[in-house]
Design a protein that fits this description.
Glutamine Phosphoribosylpyrophosphate, subunit 1, domain 1, glutamine amidotransferase, ASN_synthetase/amidase, single chain, Asn_synth_AEB, alpha/beta, asparagine synthase (glutamine-hydrolyzing) activity, ATP binding
Length: 661
């Protein structure tokens, strides 16, 4: 985990370029507390805040090859750097260090953009060829590491985080109301968008190829959609166990810094913990516990920690803690949130850092690959509704949502009627997610200039058709997986709730389920091996690790990680800043929000609070609150970062103009 920043195609005096880079470096310094460095050349500048996880004594960045032609700023890990090093040595490349950064530099110099297809692991990078006046920006297949940019004339300013871009003179700080509304509809930014005008993101699996006068955004790696592997349940379980075990071993062993594991108490993190613990004695584990019992999984976490001899750490989180931490969560997420769940993860990463651990392995990606979410079951149910009478449909619905049995017959009938209204596809390619997106459309009332309740889904569908020309030919669950990978996983779980909260305290996340071999195997498995006929989710994964993990964990129904939302900010435990931010005068300062409606809406929620707040209102309130915080912290009360002192730089390179020979 590192923070990177840079510019290219912009002519500046050397001293001015160096000063701007050190200011941008301050904006990402939290991501890499171990070493800071800059490299300045005519029309080019790179800066890196490094978290030293592989080869701490070497691997300093920015890194330039011995000829001075190629320069690299890199955030991420190349897990297969040992194998790539052998390949490069076989064609005559020589290495000075054991670092994966040097391997990446040599790979890009030797193979060009084809090197990206060889990389295993998360990355965001800026790579410059000074001789040929070319620059490459690229981001990994799944979007595990962020990369943002602003075009300035023919040039580009880029950084891991938006706050670093705002350190560059002349870049405006203004919310993008249309983009924020799309977040309220989709739960995440549309790929390539941010919540700020003029600031773009490199989408997952894309690269930017730049030369003077040319800027090209290219899709360099797509999720595969291959299916139909002829395989039985036993062999599938064996292959899944082998692929995932190998992935966990690599991520646990190729780490030269203290490593831990995030432990939720669910299936995925338990598998990761069990395998990783076989390599590391007294592996540190870290969990969130909630004072609200409905969200707490402490009992399961404790069982796993005992079973595998983990050195377990826990942060106990109250509603007041969430209220107090949420502004910092928004400061690091840099986007609108539909939940409060990032705040406990911010508190957890703080505890990880305090324990001296620099990297954690976790279970992200398992639900998307092996059909773990209820949304996949709902997609199949809605697709069959036209074949079912009401009695049959109600029976299936109650099996899908057992809590309906406690709410009376009317609740089931009402939900069935709701699902029947979504029994046919409205937007091509989005059938699986139309219920989710319709709920988000209600938030349009918050905004001063409304874009239309289906504008976000329509824009997403168009983006997906360009990304996956075969999208229309795929059946429902295949489409659902692709949409989930490109939206909630890439845009929220790996970023707002993952990378950003970890990086806030200089912690690196490692996701074994997102190994290419694991994902590609999962894509090819028949649906019934993942989502069994009896409704068992992730069936092949549960079979694969039977006997290793506790049966109680393996057999429990999935409990998604959630945290209390609006109640944290509307009840008596709310921090002082909440009342100030929701005051009428503050609402009027945010140009993307309709202050009259927002004031009435908050009053309504406060009156509703004793009786409980509906999930749709929870989501809508969090969108409002986080938009107001973005306006407050990044626009109204923004303080530019103080440049990192030059004498603190471990790398301080000054390169002259390139000359052949």
């Amino acid at each position: 985990m590192c923070g990177i920043a840079g510019f290219f195609g912009i002519a500046l005096p050397e001293a001015e370029a160096a000063l701007r880079l050190r200011a941008m470096l301050a904006g990402v310094a939290h991501r890499g507390p171990d070493q800071h460095g800059t490299c300045v050349a005519p029309g080019l500048g790179l800066a890196v805040a490094r978290l030293a996880v592989v080869e701490p004594a070497a691997g300093r960045q920015p890194m330039v090859d011995e000829t001075g032609r190629w320069a690299l700023a890199f955030n991420g890990e190349v897990y297969n750097h040992v194998e790539l090093r052998r390949d490069l040595e076989s064609v005559g490349r020589q290495f000075r260090t054991r670092s994966d950064t040097e391997v990446l530099l040599a790979a890009l110099a030797h193979w060009g953009t084809d090197a990206l297809d060889r990389l295993e692991g998360p990355y965001a990078l800026i790579f410059a060829d000074r001789r040929d006046h070319k620059v490459l920006m690229a981001r990994d297949r799944f979007g595990e590491r962020p990369l943002h940019y602003v075009r300035q004339g023919d040039g580009v300013v880029a950084a891991s985080e938006i706050k670093s871009l705002f350190a560059w003179p002349g870049i405006e700080r203004q919310l993008d109301g249309a983009a924020i509304q799309r977040v309220s509809q989709l739960w995440v930014n549309l790929p390539g968008e941010t919540c700020f005008q003029g600031i773009a993101a490199v989408p997952p699996g894309h690269r930017v190829e730049w030369t003077p006068g040319r800027f090209g955004l290219v899709a360099s790696a797509a999720q595969t959609s291959r299916h139909g592997l002829a395989i039985g349940a036993a062999e599938a379980a064996q292959q899944v166990r082998a692929a995932l075990t190998a992935s966990i071993h690599v991520r646990a062993s190729r780490c030269d810094a203290p490593l831990g594991v995030y432990l939720s108490g669910g299936l995925d993190s338990t598998i990761v913990a069990a395998v990783a613990a076989s390599q590391r004695t007294r592996l540190p584990s870290f969990s969130v516990a909630f004072e609200d019992e409905g969200f707490d999984e402490t009992d399961y976490q404790d069982e796993v920690a005992r079973r595998f001899g983990l050195d377990h750490h826990r942060v106990r989180v109250s509603q007041a803690d969430i209220s107090a931490a949420f502004p910092q969560a928004i400061l690091h997420a840099e986007t609108v949130q539909f939940r409060s769940a990032a705040a406990p993860m911010l508190l957890l990463s703080r505890q990880v850092a305090a324990a001296g651990v620099k990297a954690v392995v976790s279970g992200e990606g398992a639900d998307e690959i092996f059909l773990g979410y209820d949304m996949f079951k709902e997609t199949m149910f809605r697709g069959r509704l036209s074949e079912l009478n009401d009695d049959e449909a109600l029976a299936e619905l109650r099996a899908l949502h057992p809590y309906l049995a406690h709410l009376g017959a009317g609740a089931g009938a009402s939900m069935l009627a709701f699902y029947r209204s979504f029994a046919t596809e409205k937007i091509p390619g989005l059938f699986s997610h139309e219920v989710r997106f319709a709920a988000g459309g209600a938030a349009q009332r918050l905004f001063s200039q409304r874009i239309g309740a289906d504008q976000g889904p329509q824009a997403l569908a168009a983006w997906l058709r360009r990304r996956y020309p075969e999208m229309a030919e795929l059946e429902g669950l295949r489409q659902a997986q692709l949409v989930e990978f490109e939206t909630l996983l890439a845009g929220y779980l790996l970023t707002s709730q993952g990378d950003r909260m970890m990086a806030a305290h200089g912690v690196e996340g490692r996701c074994p389920f997102l190994d290419s071999a694991v994902v590609d195997l999962g894509w090819q498995l028949p649906d019934h091996l993942c989502l069994a006929a009896d409704g068992t989710e992730k069936a092949v994964l549960k079979d694969a690790f039977a006997g290793l993990i506790p049966d109680r964990i393996r057999e429990r129904r999935k409990q998604p990680y959630r945290a209390p939302d609006a109640v944290c900010f509307l009840s008596a435990v709310a921090a002082d800043w909440v009342a100030d931010l929701l005051a009428p005068s503050s609402l009027k300062q945010c140009p993307v929000i309709d202050p009259v409606f927002a004031e009435r809406y908050v009053q309504k929620l406060r009156a509703t609070l004793p009786h409980g707040i509906a999930p749709r209102d929870d989501q809508m309130f969090m969108v409002l609150l986080s938009a107001l915080l973005l306006q407050h912290m990044f626009v109204d009360d923004y303080a530019p970062p103080v440049p990192v002192p030059e004498d603190s730089l471990a790398v301080n390179l000054r390169l002259g103009a390139w000359r052949d020979g």
